[in-house]
Amino acid sequence: MALQYSSSSELDSPAPAFSLPGVDGQVYSLDSFKDCKGLLIVFLCNHCPYVIAVHERLSKLAREYASRGVAVIGINSNDPAYREADSFENMKKIAVEWSLPFPYVFDETQDVARAYDAVCTPDPYLYVNDGSGFRLWYRGRVDDSWKDEASVRDQSLRDAIESLLTGQRLGKEMIPSMGCSIKWKELTPKKG
Question: Strand pairing of 38-44 and 120-121?
Answer without folding.
Answer: unpaired
